[in-house]
Fold this protein.
Amino acid sequence: MPPRRLLITDLDNTLYDWVGFFAPAFRAMVDELALVLGVEDDRLLEEFKSVHQRLGSLEQPFAIFEIESVKRRYPGASPAELAKALDRPLHRFNSIRKQHLRLYPGVARSLWRLSEAGVRLVGHTEASAANAYYRLSRLGIAEHFAHLYTQSAPEVAHPDPVRQLALAPPAGLVVALDKSQAKPNPRLLEAICGSEHVAVEDAVFVGDSLAKDVAMAKAARVRAVWARYGTDVDPSLWEILVRVTHWTDADVAREASARRDAVGITPDDTIDRFDDILEVFGLDPEPVGS
């Protein structure tokens, strides 16, 4: 077996439970916003969905500034003024996010072990670079990553430019990929391997989606590891996200097509805890002599 010198890891629902923290935080924000504005939740959810689809992304915490009910209540207000007026719902989002954002078991220790063994670690995400870096930094694992690969997308900026700058990823960490290099296009992984100067045969990709992650890795000839534990999602939380999804009808059709194409695809390895990835690299949990 050739040496595995590069681990490319998905972030959401692979290193941490994204659905488990984002859905409750978003729900709490909407509930609080409904009280502030005196508007029904269902109406707000539809307005959020419209903004998410326009921006092409679900994870837009400051999309709250763009929804119609807020614009009608605070016409002409600046982002700073809106942040002050909507402090309660924004605070609820942040509070619930902090309560629920946590690594899956074994992630921190395994990333450290892989780094110690000389495995190069890079992340890939479809979230914005700022949001992804915030999570990695808050969870204490950002230092392990040589690069974070992402596709750029429009977003509603932080209302405080100074705060926005402070939260920005350090120079050189983020590498923007062409929008055509999106899951499940195998060119995405080929581009990452090329950028990291590692042959595809020497790389491992781990992710939670059979249709997007595993199928893509297999097509790129990168060792495909399925993080099966990442599919254990609370249906009630998933329903919240579906209500405000940024996916268009065309996106839904593409996802259905990807799922059909992935039928019969078998991962090279299946893990039920992140630290099972160490076995893929032939590593013991603890270095020899420790």
User: Anything to note?
Assistant: Residues 18-37 form the longest helix (20 residues). The chain has 13 helices and seven strands.
